[in-house]
Design goal:
Elements (H helix, E strand, L loop, with lengths): L2 H28 L6 H34 L3 H30 L2 H36 L2 H18 L8 H11 L12
Helix pairs in contact: 1-2, 1-4, 1-5, 1-6, 2-3, 2-5, 3-4
Length: 192
């Protein structure tokens, strides 16, 4: 396993942890139980800032391009790109749904909970697909030196965005995970 695939596996673990929290919050909304509105806002922000702006951008601009140069993966990569677009659209729906729910009635909260659950499902399925199909292929096709170079390119994207490996977001996500009772194992960020 090289630097870039270690990076994405660790990040996918974080994405699944956030998705589990969103799913648990949806459970609480549907059961008409209290929940931390700030946690919802912070998780949505994490998904926008880290998942959409940094993680998926690194996949699209760095990993996908490297794989396309080495294999005929156009159809599979096209599918993953379409899922990225769908996830970005879903975040917009969640933002609008949250605003409507805060200003609305119980039915607006229930619709918001459905959207949370759907987004969490999308993130889980997408990250598992990449972990089970794309990243093993990357390990087979990209040598250690190439993977290290790709990892440096991702770091440059994060620096450009001011995210320096998103460490500043992690303590809040872990706090929310504890609040949600997330039982997912803590992902290892690995070296690099």
């Amino acid at each position: 396993m090289g630097a870039i695939t270690r990076r994405f596996r660790a990040e996918h673990g974080l994405v699944r942890r956030a998705a589990a929290c969103l799913d648990r919050i949806a459970d609480r909304i549907e059961a008409d139980l209290s929940f931390d509105l700030g946690a919802v806002c912070d998780l949505l922000r994490y998904c926008e800032v880290f998942v959409d702006d940094a993680h998926q951008r690194c996949e699209e601009e760095v990993l996908f391009r490297a794989l396309q140069r080495r294999t005929n993966m156009a159809e599979r990569i096209g599918e993953l790109l379409r899922e990225h677009v769908g996830e970005r659209i879903a975040i917009g729906r969640l933002r609008r749904g949250l605003a409507a729910a805060v200003c609305g009635e119980r039915s607006a909260w229930l619709r918001f909970a459905e959207e949370l659950r759907e987004y969490a499902r999308q993130q889980l399925e997408h990250s598992l697909k990449e972990d089970e199909v794309l990243l093993p292929l990357a390990d087979d096709l990209l040598d250690e030196s190439t993977q290290a170079d790709l990892d440096l390119r991702c770091r440059a994207i994060e620096r450009e965005l001011g995210l320096e490996r998103h460490e500043h977001l992690l303590p809040r996500i872990e706090e929310i995970a504890r609040q949600c009772g997330s039982i997912l194992p803590q992902p290892s960020l690995g070296a690099g």
